[in-house]
Design a protein that fits this description.
Distance between the termini of chain A: 16 Å
Radius of gyration of chain A: 19 Å
CATH topology of the largest domain in chain A: Rossmann fold
CATH architecture of the largest domain in chain A: 3-Layer(aba) Sandwich
Number of domains of chain A: 2
Oligomer: homotrimer
CATH superfamily of the largest domain in chain A: Aspartate/ornithine carbamoyltransferase
Amino acid sequence: MKNLINSQDLTKIELEKLFVLSDKMNKRQKKYDDSLKGFVIATLFYEPSTRTRLSFESAIQKLGAGLISTENAKESGSAKKGETLEDTIKIIQGYADMIILRHFDNDSSDRALKVASVPIINAGAGNGEHPPQGLLDIYTIRQYKKEINNTSIAIIGDLKNGRTVHSLIKLLCLYENITFYGFSVKGLELPKNYIEYIESHNAKYFICKDFSEIPSDVNFIYQTRIQTERLENKNFSIEDIILNKERFSRFSENTYIMHPLPRTNEISTDLDDDKRSIYFKQAHNGIPTKMALIYSIIKDFYKNKKHF
Amino acid sequence: MKNLINSQDLTKIELEKLFVLSDKMNKRQKKYDDSLKGFVIATLFYEPSTRTRLSFESAIQKLGAGLISTENAKESGSAKKGETLEDTIKIIQGYADMIILRHFDNDSSDRALKVASVPIINAGAGNGEHPPQGLLDIYTIRQYKKEINNTSIAIIGDLKNGRTVHSLIKLLCLYENITFYGFSVKGLELPKNYIEYIESHNAKYFICKDFSEIPSDVNFIYQTRIQTERLENKNFSIEDIILNKERFSRFSENTYIMHPLPRTNEISTDLDDDKRSIYFKQAHNGIPTKMALIYSIIKDFYKNKKHF
Amino acid sequence: MKNLINSQDLTKIELEKLFVLSDKMNKRQKKYDDSLKGFVIATLFYEPSTRTRLSFESAIQKLGAGLISTENAKESGSAKKGETLEDTIKIIQGYADMIILRHFDNDSSDRALKVASVPIINAGAGNGEHPPQGLLDIYTIRQYKKEINNTSIAIIGDLKNGRTVHSLIKLLCLYENITFYGFSVKGLELPKNYIEYIESHNAKYFICKDFSEIPSDVNFIYQTRIQTERLENKNFSIEDIILNKERFSRFSENTYIMHPLPRTNEISTDLDDDKRSIYFKQAHNGIPTKMALIYSIIKDFYKNKKHF
């Protein structure tokens, strides 16, 4: 594994290795503390981010690597002077040993990969993919349910633009007997190609028109934010998809609530204290999974070079 | 001491301990150089800042800790997507072992503290408080006058919105026989609750209508900037409160000029070379006092945990 | 060498020393890896930058120093509250052991130097100078042509506002028998004082009205971007100065193409794969030359102080 651009690049074996390494990172095993000393890693973000950027930057430093960071590449950098993404990548790879990219174009990471001589991690591309989020999501599923095979999960909200949902689907489809229940706001349904992806991987997809249609013993409810910043028509009610204490009351003691965050109000704060609300713990899993991801890629990429 | 939210949280004994430790930090004692290695600290700033953010970030690195930084959390991060401060704190505490927060709401740090599982330092909250500034201010007073008891100080300018003045008052009131002379622009007088605070702590507050009403042997003149960014009506003259060479000429050889900075023109640059102008040295005291503050809190908070 | 403000501050001997050290940095000699540990260096940028800021920040970390960074000092910091550059410098020098400054005023670094107690590096000042770029440019020339004396170079595009061209001219004029061919867009000719500078240093300057007037055996073509952000009248065609495969076909096998980058379209991407296109390698030389620059200045400045 020398890059992470699309979720389907990951095999089940690679995923399992990453999870085992993530467990070690979670325990803060001393041997990894300065393991990437001497490397410099760039975070290059063309879209706003708190969670993804800061968790990557924390992971980078926990591994002892140096960090160069662009919080707002669209406005503060060469993009404003008309530089193409390809040129920017070709330059920054002279300054850093790995580039972590968030960009507003769906094909940005693929384009970066074509010109890159250092590893690229896609940390969010338009309304396409966000594989590191998929990674931490599956890691969280594994943490709470032990087994990833035989998982049922309700995906709710903006299934059209939510790139975390798209990455999650692709990664889950690596496992056996996965069932998705999709419940979206009207007009934000899961795109056809993702439904086909699910079905061609022997997983199941059921469309739900209401919370009541989601089985009460579903393993996970994966709620998402309506990405109003990507919508042209903002005139719709999200009332129906809000998950609150009352609506959650019919679900099982083993149904966990996930959310890639940030949330607006689609999960009511009255659920925050419920032990089945694991969305903050899910976010915190960004650290060990990103440490494992960065470490694995750097180690693989530079194994025969003087660096490592 | 496990957080620093409001100045009144600090006792006189804690202050003294911080000052002794600040003296050590000032001498760059080797033992502190990598003392926080392995920790990661977040600076989360929702309002513009050069001084406070950069001095915290310098202090963090001088102690050997890792740093994750948000220069403009209001625009570049999840706040723009509608995330509450509480949610942001709950997430970032999974990435960092301490959060240093600047926010435009007066109760922001109190709100953060309620949900936080890591230490919080209030680095400026609306027009409320700014305790780390108070800390460096008192440290500067101690440096130049040796004794903090029996201090007289003229506070000038925007006494209503100047959060550094508010923190300074609360910290000085921990000491004996303190006298304040307040000289403000019309409409920006010291709020009544602060006058009551002073009087209930056996300190004195005198209102001055002119520079000439400030005793010429006052120990310190603490000038402040008119915070035009917080004012609705900007039509007033600050001419009267400008301190220049001429107006300063009647003051004693032992009267020092302080300012939390940045200044616009309320201290004339013709005073910069006067040895009693200590505002830049005051700013530089941000480093040892912040090093002491961070070190003390981290050490106290994590003393029984695996980290330390 | 205790600062780098203007290119003419550098002597030929200093340049040569920097190049020899840059060669060592390029090889990542272990002895420099943590050589600046304990120092903190500030990057203070009032104008957008990707290349310069990130390459300085990478260099800083490769040397083991701490970093405090301002990506957008104009908007996110004290400048917005009305603080002068001089005051900002006087404050930050209490937080950092060196300041790397980019500012929109031509005299900014000179003004900073006047008040500074720590070394200042001018990383771009208005449409004036950009000495670190000049440094990496000459280092690149030395790398590809071995000898800097007897160099011919065509400078193309915006010769009026292009500060990298200005720094390059001054540094090249330290050497023997240098010939410049200037080919600019109408209205963006090389200012008279630079032509006089060239001629007073026994170098030659020829004005070209077309690509065809540039000798086909010129050693280097130094293309530059039209800095539309600095122009009032943007109505002109850059068509004539675009360098593409066809126009480049008449040049020698030993004519190299340089560009300070970012480019818009003044070098056609069909030239990117030509081995004589060295603009990305040129950009990458920012790392070893900046490492050498920072290391030399810090070492010289702090040699008798406790730091080093």
